[in-house]
Amino acid sequence: MKTIAAILIFLNLLLCTAAAVAQCPSNKYQWDFSGSFGLLGPDLSSANSQLTNKKTTTQPQATYFSAHYFIYNRLAIGLAMGINTEKGTFNDATFPSASTGSYTVSNKTVAMELYYIYLFRKYIELYTFAGVGPTSSTEQNTLSGSFGSSRQSESKAGLKGQYTPIGIRAGGRLGAYAELGYGYKGLVNLGISFKLGPSCWWSGDF
User: Fold this and answer.
1) Mind giving me the DSSP string for the chain?
2) How large is the average pLDDT for residues 153-176?
3) What is the pTM of this model?
């Protein structure tokens, strides 16, 4: 009887150990790195507002790199760095088809972000995030006139924000994602991300 009891205890310990090993470790203290390209951002130009017939030739575009660190299983804090650009022309008030100059606007932003995953599925995540941070804006205007062209430049500092109510990521350690929001990353944001940590979190073994 003692031998049988010892064998049963040993088998029970083995099963408990196997279950502990099979259990997915926490997503806590893991990193997620991503790069993105945003479209349909807000109008960036400001200094040329007194000039009429402005025409945007290149819609605002945003390129960003982000790093998020999970402090809980679903909640992460992070840092985003990137640039928004916009280009366009000024058209003559009398002859709209004639260009009287051009402009280029660029915003460089560094923002803190709060990131939350509210739905896990196998290889699918639904999430939301918000961010805010300082930005440096530079606008350059080149105007053409009767006596040649002239250049104007203006730089200023400000604060930019981003709120993305819905984002979806698909994939494993390397995945692709799409986001819908408003702010420094644009209205529609597409990108790729790379996760560190145990694979069971994106394979659904949790």
Assistant:
1) -HHHHHHHHHHHHHHHHHHHHHSPPPSTT-EEEEEEEEES------GGGGSSSEEEEEEEEEEEEEEEEESSSSEEEEEEEEEEEEEEEEE-SS-TTSEEEEEEEEEEEEEEEEEEEEEEETTEEEEEEEEEEEEEEEEEEEEEETTEEEEEEEEEEEEEEEEEEEEEEEESSEEEEEEEEEETT-SEEEEEEEE-S-THHHHT--
2) 92
3) 0.74
